[in-house]
Amino acid sequence: MATKRKAAKSTSPFGRGDAAFLRQDLRGIAPEIAYAGATSFLRRRYSRDLSEADLAVVGVPYDLATTNRSGARLGPRAIRAASAMIACWTRIYPWDFDPMLRIAVADWGDVAFDHGLPDKIPDTITQTFREILASDTATLALGGDHFMTYPILRAYAEKYGALSLIHFDAHSDTWRDSHNRIDHGTMFFHAARAGLVVPERSAQIGLRTYNPESHGFNIFDARTVKQRGAKVVAREVRKLVGQNKCYLTFDIDCLDPAYAPGTGTPEMGGLTSYEAQELLYGLRGINLVGADVVEVAPPFDQAEITALAAATIGFMQISLFAENFPMHEREKSRARHLARASAKASRGKKSATKRSIKTKRKTRVQSGVQSKPKPKTKPKTKTKPKAKTKAKAKTKSKAKAKAKTKAKAKAKSKTRKS
Questions:
Q1: What is the DSSP string of 192-225?
Q2: Residue 249: helix, strand or coil by DSSP?
Q3: Which residues contact 270 (CB under 8 A, 6 or more apart)?
């Protein structure tokens, strides 16, 4: 009977592909080819079972509240597709640890609603997030226009109470509205009035449109970020938020259109991608309970640069979540392994140096080359100071001159007597 041969183990760095369906563990990275396979966010497993998840990625394909160009309903799909390119990284710059080892992340999929019943959609979004939060799972939402943050905040406020809001945007989204309209420019006015957020412990970053009312929000507009620097602004935001539970919402139009053209309401003079990275990295340590990235409109994007920016920002938001989680055992063992390897390398360098010194000495002896003895130094004799010698010579010459004058005087006296 012929025995079955075992299949040779693949040496490829890529796995079987489609980790969105085949992944067993919600932690870690499973590299895949970026241009193929199912496009879940960062190749996380699609799952509605959140019993093992710490964070769920949820798409909200909604753009019925836009005031300019629609298209953000296609945002979640575009962000997931762009995220495939960075899904193989074990960390995102400038973080120095792998967030996917610290927290378990699943892609929950998209919120389902009937677009023909627009007035029912906000409640559907709230109910969906209410059910996810009931499983003690945080959320990273992919938008969708910015109005979607309002129904999400309702679910969060039910669980945690009034939150601090960290809001990146070109627009304040706090324009006064007395009619409770569904509008992506008024929802934070309603959120403040409804007690979902605490304006005095909240921050709006990157604004560059006019609104005569701040409604108590702390505003760090684009000019402030440019003049004072991203690190300083991040430090001030972190200070005013403190340890309050906070929700971080990032409207992609906070970036200048040069860095994010694919959005519904672009405004010139925005933040650079680097400034956004520095601001997010500077917020490390905040008590983050939820986040979203919104307003990506693929029909106006160029070469997926807006979608890629949003995917990278989403990865950074996950890293902010992971900052508050302890190191995973795999992360600890990797650190120990690296420490042992570096110690071994340093010991190897020391022994190599010793061997090279011994070898040099041996070759000198074998070749008969001896080191030249150091020349013996003669003992220093004490010499009298020159000044004293000159003084003595002067006194001697004076004495001789006196003796001569006396001799001459005696001789003169003798001649006179004679």
A1: HHTTSB-GGG-EEES--S--S--TT-EEE-HHHH
A2: strand
A3: 170, 206, 208, 222, 253, 254, 255, 256, 257, 259, 260
Walk across the sheet containing 164-168 and list its strands.
Answer: 105-110, 55-60, 138-143, 287-294, 245-251, 164-168, 203-205, 218-220
Q: What is the mean pLDDT of residues 358-380?
A: 64
Backbone torsion region of residue 368, taken as left when φ is above 0, otherwise alpha when ψ lies between -120 and 50, otherwise beta: left
Residue count of the chain, please give it: 418
Cα–Cα distance for residue pair 282/238, rounded to 1 Å: 8
Burial of 72 (0-12, 13-18, 19+ CB in 10 A): buried
- All structural domains of the chain with their residue ranges: 30-328
Q: CB neighbours of 14 closer than 8 A, spacing ≥ 6?
A: 31, 32, 33
Instruction: Specify the DSSP class assigned to residue 348.
Output: H
Q: Can you tell me whether residue 377 is helix, strand or coil? A: coil
pLDDT in tens, 186-225: 999 999 999 999 999 999 999 999 999 989 999 999 999 9
- Cβ contact 268:259 at 8 Å: no
> Which has the closest alpha carbon to 311: 142, 152, 194, 183?
142
CATH number of 30-328: 3.40.800.10
H or E stretch covering 311: helix 305-323
Bond before 144 cis per omega within 30 degrees: yes
Tokens 């679910």 correspond to 155
Distance of CA 207 to the CA centre of its chain: 22
Contacts of 385 (CB under 8 A, 6+ apart): none
Taking a C-beta distance cutoff of 8 angstroms, is the pair 315, 42 a contact?
Answer: yes
Calculate helix-pair angle for 75-83, 305-323, nearest 10 degrees. Answer: 80
Q: In this structure, are strands 138-143 and 105-110 parallel, antiparallel, or unpaired?
A: unpaired
Q: Cα(200)–Cα(197) distance, rounded to whole angstroms? A: 9
Rounded Cα distance, 14 and 276, in Å: 31
Bridge partner residues of 271 (DSSP): 255
Q: For residues 159 and 224, what is the distance between their CA atoms, to the nearest angstrom?
A: 34
Separation between Cα atoms, residue 181 and residue 67, nearest integer Å: 12
Total-model pTM: 0.78
> What is the reported pLDDT for 384?
53
Report the 10 Å Cβ neighbour count for 9: 6
Task: Provide the token pair at 341.
Answer: 């390897």
